[in-house]
Amino acid sequence: MGPDKNLLERWRTTEILLLGGSAGSFKLLFQIVKLLPASLNKVVIIVIHRKRNFFSEIEKLFAENSSIPLHEIEDKDVLKKNTIYIAPANYHTLIEKEGYFSLDVSEAVWYSKPSIDVTFESAAEIYDKRCMAVLLSGANQDGAEGMLKLRNSGAVTIAQHPDDAEMDEMPAAAINIGAATYILRTEEIFELLQIQ
């Protein structure tokens, strides 16, 4: 059937795509990285829960299967379009209004560092309606409050349909507090993100 017309228009004018996930989201994120077109012309930021040194090959695996330059975020990296950034383990990733990342070593949020909430909330303060966020499978509620702030700032927010999620707690938490503008099936998310 194809995406909703309003959603399609918002996707085309989006400057930054935020992708958040935890348990059960690795394969989905890998698939998204593979399907994003080379001419995407957006900043893409992935925040996936990971322990220190766990998934140490994630950047290599993703980069080898991406048509867009991809790397792990370092402190003070400048955000560039047509680049995929992955939040590093053991830090919270924030976006500064001057257009660069800062890494924060404060306490874990929802037992997680990086926290999806922290990154989503910092994006909400800067990108408002120029931002789209997608929250995928996960076993806790990280990302829900951050997604609500994004929605309230004018961003488009998408939760993976809980029936499709390997672990439904994360997208369900966002849906339950009214943080999701759209609730999409996995295939609908894939379809949308390939459109130019």
From TrEMBL:
It catalyses: [protein]-L-glutamate 5-O-methyl ester + H2O = L-glutamyl-[protein] + methanol + H(+). Keywords: Chemotaxis, Hydrolase. The keyword Transmembrane does not apply. InterPro entries: CheB_C (IPR035909), Sig_transdc_resp-reg_Me-estase (IPR000673). Its EC number is 3.1.1.61. It is an enzyme of class 3 (hydrolase). It comes from the Bacteria. Transmembrane segments: none annotated. The active site is at residues 22, 49, 142. SUPFAM superfamilies: Methylesterase CheB, C-terminal domain. Residues 10-196 form the CheB-type methylesterase domain. PANTHER family: PROTEIN-GLUTAMATE METHYLESTERASE/PROTEIN-GLUTAMINE GLUTAMINASE (PTHR42872), PROTEIN-GLUTAMATE METHYLESTERASE_PROTEIN-GLUTAMINE GLUTAMINASE 1 (PTHR42872:SF3). This is protein-glutamate methylesterase. It comes from Mucilaginibacter sabulilitoris. The lineage of its organism: Bacteria, Pseudomonadati, Bacteroidota, Sphingobacteriia, Sphingobacteriales.
